[in-house]
Amino acid sequence: MLSSRFSPPHFLPFSSRHFVRPFSSLSPSPSPSPPQPPPTISPPPSSLPLPLFLRPLSHSTSLSSLLSFHNWAKAQSLSQPSLSSDLLRQLSWFLQDTTSPHPTHPSTALLRTELNELYSLWTQRVEKRKPFQYIVGCEHWRDLVLVVQDGVLIPRPETEILVDLVQEVEGFRDGVWVDLGTGSGALAVAIGKMMMDGGNAGRVLGIDISPTAVEVARFNVQRYGLEGKVEIRQGAWFEPLQGLKGKVTGIVSNPPYIPSSDLPGLQPEVGWYEPRLALDGGNDGTDHLLHICEGLAAVLKPGGFFAFETNGDKQSEFLANLLSTKWRQLFQKVKVVSDYYGVKRFVIGYRS
């Protein structure tokens, strides 16, 4: 899907999105392998709009017209000095996702939408600050290309660390794992995909209260052929886990953790567009985190693992201290893990 793209004269060279991150990233990822498309691409449910990057190449234009668009879009991007570096990089990705050379007519380019629509979409990106991922309909995350859309949180690179932490748990492929607040299904899909390596009995449950997130997550599960390994359920936090009390091998979560008072100060791509439901952590950002901490012991089996993401530093230290003192009889080996930038981002531990 992304590995074969042409470069008209003066087009920006290809840059792997996995190594040069878009606006929403807090930090780069050292992951060595670039994203790979799933083995098969099925159409989404009828209620889910077909993402731009998955649309057929059913439109065409002259190479000169496409070059004119590129020159215009480049000028638009350079008109925003504080964003121009990211915008130029995203413009290269935008052309890769929406265009392809014509197989028999070198002076013609194939498009996934009308050329006029490319102008409209790039205007939304530059002037309206709409997230690039919502425009093309995907985010490159770990070794995945995940469908995202309005109403679903765009997965961040630091959250990939949660997958690495799961991979370090002995015997993780044979257990039942839960991703609380699954959003696009990023964590659930990544863990399920690791479980496919070799025969095992493990499975993953992704939980989200948002109907939009549930639909998108199910589509991502389907795209990677993980229907037999990953199940997406709708509901609030632990509610859909009835019958699994004391049986869960591990729980991961990237819940809302931004203090409500900080939301107005978020960059426009985040504050204006991403779902408040996935961002707002209440007065001090810990409302949902505390709820998760309070429910862990009931569902984890003895020795069960947990790892969740926080706003960093003081928030992580507060929660780790709480788990180690107030609930010290329930948990062990509780500690804080830093992200790629050294921010104390994650709290991990085990059920006693």
UniProtKB/TrEMBL annotation:
SUPFAM superfamilies: S-adenosyl-L-methionine-dependent methyltransferases (SSF53335). Residues 23-45 are annotated as: Disordered. GO terms for biological process: methylation. It holds the Pfam family Methyltransf_31. PROSITE patterns: N6_MTASE. Residues 177-265 form the Methyltransferase domain. NCBIfam families: hemK_fam (TIGR00536). PANTHER family: PTHR47441, RELEASE FACTOR GLUTAMINE METHYLTRANSFERASE (PTHR47441:SF3). This is Release factor glutamine methyltransferase. It comes from Rhynchospora pubera.
